[in-house]
User: What shape does this take?
Amino acid sequence: MKLSLNGIKNKSDWEATNITLPGYDVEAAAEKAKAAPRWAHFGIGNIFRIFIGGIADGMLEDGDLDTALTCVETFDYDVVDKIYRPFDNLGLSVILHTDGTRDCKVLGSFGEAIKAQSSDPAQWTRLKEIFSAPSLQMVSFTITEKGYALTTSSGSYLPYVEADIENGPDKAVGAMGVLTAMLLARYQNGRAPLALVSMDNCSKNGSLLRSSVLTMAEEWKKKGYVDEDFFAYVSDESIVSFPWTMIDKITPRPNPDIAADLKALGVEDMDPVETSKRTYIAPFINGEDPQYLVIEDSFPNGRPPLEKGKGVYLGSRDTVNKSERMKVTALLNPVHSAVGPFGVLLGEEYFADMINRDAKLMKLAKSVCYDEGFPMVESPEIIDPKAFADELFNLRFVNEYLLDTNLRLCTDESQGLGIRFGETIKAYTAKYGSAEQLIAIPLGIAGWLRYVLAVDDAGNTYTLAPDPLAGEIADALKDVEIGKPETLKDQLKPILSNEKIFFTNLYENGVGEKIEGLFREMIAGQGAVRATIDKYM
Assistant: This one.
C-alpha cells in the first residue's frame, strides 16, 4: 500500500489494517486551498502534522471546514521534497495510548506545500499570491523559539537577520524576514486584515512574534524598503493581530519501530529520514492522545470554527496567558527541561522508561512541578491546574509507548530557559524577596550546564542536540575539566547573569551561587552527577 492519492483509493486494503482513511474529498479540499487559501502555517514538521493537521483533519471530517491547510516551510526545504511531495501531501497519524494500543489515520488536510525560498522565483511568487488573497484569515506558526529570534545573546543581530535587513524584502531568508516580506505583499494588494498566530511554546508568543515583525519593518523603513504606511498597517492590531496561544501535545521523533510495524502491515516507504539540517521526520507522525490548544479570540478577517477542533479552547488574552504560564513556566516544560539533560548524562535514552524506574529523577520531576512550579500558578479556569499536573504524572510523562528521548528534550533548550525557569524564579523573588528556597529548579539548570560539556557521568562523549547557543556556552566552559572542580572559576557568571537567556539575573534572585555550587559538585569526577542528584533528591 502506498501513501498517495491513488494508493488510498484501495480502501479495502487500508481498512484491513485498521488504518482509517479520510472520509472527505481530499483533492477537493486541496483545490479550495489553492484557489482561496484560508489557513496557512509556517513550520511544517512533526508537531504541526499531528496536532494542527489533526485538528484540521477532524474539522474536515465533521464538515466544519472545507478548505485544506497551506503548508509553508521556512527553514528545512528537504521536508517538502522528502515528506510532502512524494506522498501527495498526505500524512499518517499514529496515536500512542498508555495501554500500548494505537490509532492510525491518514491525514488529508495538507493542501499545498510551499518552500518560503526567495531564491526560488516560482515558490516566492506563489507565496506572495497566498498572502495577497483576501480569503486568507490566519497564518499559524510552529517554528520553535529560535524562529522568532533576531539577536544573539549579546544583543547584536544574527548574521542572517543582518543580511535580511541589508538586502530587503525580496531577498529575505529568515522566517521573520520572509513573513514581513509577505505582509508587504498583502499590504500592496489591498491591505486585507490577517491574524498571525504563534503556536510555539513561548511565553506571550503573540507579542514575541509581533515584536520581531515590527523590528524587521522598522529596520526596512530606515533603509527605505517600506514606507510609514506599511509600518502603520502591521502595527495596528485591529488589522494585523497577533493572538497569544498555549499549545500542548507531546510529540516525539518518529519511531523506527513504528515504521517497521507499518511496513509489516504493507504500508510502503515509511522509514524516517534525517535531513541535511538534522530534522528527523517520516511520512508518519507518532504522538500522545491528550492535547490542548488555547487561543486568544482575535481574528480581524474572521476565522475557521476552531473551537470545533479536538482540545481547542477560545478565550481572552488573560485566559491564554494563565494557561500558558501554567504549562510552559510551571508544570510541563520545566520538568522536561530539568530532567531530560540528566537522562543524557546518565546514559538513559527514553524519558518515560527512566522516570518510571528512577525514584530520584521522578522525585526531581515532581519537585519541579508540584513543589516549586505549582505554588506560582494562577488557574486559567478553563483547565484545572491540579488535574493537568496529575494527568502528566498518571498518564503522559509515564507513557513508555511514546519513546520520547531525553536528547530530543534538550533540543533548543537554551531558547526556553527564561520561559521555563526564569519566570518562576522571578515570581518567587517578587513574592518572597528571593528565590533562594528553590532547589529542584537550580538543580535542573546546573544539570543542563553540565550536559553542555558533552561528557556523560561515565566519561563518555556524545553529540549535543541542536541548539543555537550550545556552541557559545560550551566555548565559555571549555576550560572546565571533569575531575578538576578547581577549574571552575567565574565561567558561569556571564551565563547565569544573562537576562537574555534567563529573563533575569539569577544572582539577583539568590540562585546564581547555588547553581554554581551544584555544577561544581557535578564535575567532581565520574559518578558525580548521580551523586549530586541522590544528595539533593
Observations:
- The chain has 23 helices and 15 strands.
